[in-house]
Here is the input.
Amino acid sequence: MITNGILGGIADTTAQTITAFRIRSSAKKQNAAARDQFVSIEITDLNKQSTLPQYDFVPNTRDQPPPFDFERLTRFMAYGFIMSPIQFHWFGLLSRAFPASSGAGLTPVLKRTACDQLIFAPFGLTCFYTFMTIAEGGGSKAISKKFQDIYLPTLKANWMVWPVVQIINFRFMPLQFQIPFVSSIGILWTAYLSLTNSAEDKVIEE
Here is the structure.
């Protein structure tokens, strides 16, 4: 549980860093375009204008990366901490339902992966968006809005990434290492969830 919580925190830190980098890159491009525009103004135009555009002198606060959100970090760590026992019992159930043997080959692994992706993946995303929305102070309308906008695209993206990861996990990882393996590989995935969740929060606020 502690390991999963820490990895969740690393994932959200990665997501917030990516967001800050994107904003800084966008601001640099906008500032460069503004400088080019200023240089291209003819001298006669400068004589007619009493002031220059404000953005040449005053930085736009929208172009500045937001401060690091420690509350958001705490929410992601709490979610990873809470979900790890559920994941552990789920993986144990799969191992008992589809036991691996030397002659079975990939068949049990494929069955575990299919059940995981068709049953637990939709459940896990439901838990994630519900937990995050409630932890952020949102109500039923915010939850409904989030599910309408991003649940299905996220689930489709999940099915493009995780089947291969889970095949490797169920094939080679002992039960006690399956959650740390998934959580380690899932840092970028959780960062993606963090980005989509925060982007949707901005849409709801607007």
Observations:
- Residues 24 and 160 are 30 Å apart (CA to CA).
- Residues 2-205 form one domain.
- The chain has a mean pLDDT of 82.
